Amino acid sequence: MSTTSSAPGGARRVAVVTGASGGIGRAVARRLAADGQAVLVHYAGNPGRAHEVVEEVRSAGGSAVSAGADVADEQQVRALFDTAEEAFGGVDVVVNTAGVMRLAPLARADLDEVDAMVRTNLRGALVVSAEAVRRLREGGALVNFSTSVTRLSLPTYGAYVATKAAVEAMTLVLAKELAGRDVTANTVAPGPTATPLFLDGKDEETIARMAAMNPRGRLGEPDDVAEVVSFLAGPGRWVNGQVLFANGGMA
């Protein structure tokens, strides 16, 4: 059986996907399930959408359960991992797509919104990563999420990008702290992707302009990003401590 679908000893691999009730997280959950992994579908505030993902996975012959948690709350994240272990016997892959985005020029940034991004995007990534280190079995993989806008430097993205750049740096350090264990830690940095998180508040002209900036002539799709995660969560064992830009060549 391939590395993608089996843990050491031949057991089925198990993935915890945060932010899996919509957007990229939903595509990642479906893709990992298609790869043969059992999936815990995490949600923050919409159990109905998470249940839809679980039903999609099960209808396709896969295994999934859903659970809610505030990713910045240590006790709730601990309980989230407990649920995965109780349902499936362990955790082999953690994909942390949970995030929030609020855009504004830095001089007009709402500090309450900045605090909310720091709490979910940075503290949440730290809490989930720390629990992943404690729980991941040998052969495991942690995949955090950043954004290609850390390199594009687009106006109004300053505070959001700051939280994501911190996640990149943290994950690179974590990969070295995992020395001696067969566990990888990487970050995926999507470019503009057609998800509600990206599309919300943008007019058609803005969306078309950003699509035209890409050599492929379109926005990314969630499945484009899920394909990269599938590689890191399965056969990509020699990729470690890296930031992978999944953006179709946008620079």
Would you mind describing this structure in some detail?
With 251 residues, this protein is of the alpha/beta class. It has helices at 23-34, 47-59, 74-88, 111-135, 149-152, 158-177, 196-199, 204-212, 222-233; strands spanning 14-18, 38-43, 64-68, 91-96, 136-145, 183-190, 243-246. It has a single domain (8-246), classed as Rossmann fold, CATH 3.40.50. It is built from nine helices and seven strands. The protein has a seven-stranded parallel β-sheet with strand order 3-2-1-4-5-6-7, with helices on both faces. It is globular.
Keywords:
single chain, globular, Rossmann fold, seven-stranded parallel sheet, alpha/beta, 251 residues
Which class in CATH terms?
Answer: Alpha Beta
Strand content: 15-25%
Considering the protein shown, what is the CATH homologous superfamily? NAD(P)-binding Rossmann-like Domain
Stated plainly, the CATH topology is called: Rossmann fold
CA-atom Rg in angstroms: 17 Å
Biggest sheet: strands side by side, in what order? 3-2-1-4-5-6-7
Mean pLDDT: 92
CATH architecture: 3-Layer(aba) Sandwich
Low-confidence stretches: none
Q: Number of helix segments? A: 9
Helix content: 40-55%
State the domain count.
1
The SSE string, one letter per element, is EHEHEHEHEHHEHHHE
What is the 3D shape? globular
Q: Mind summarizing the main beta sheet?
A: 7 strands, parallel
* Straight-line distance between termini: 38 Å
Beta strands, count: 7
Secondary-structure class: alpha/beta
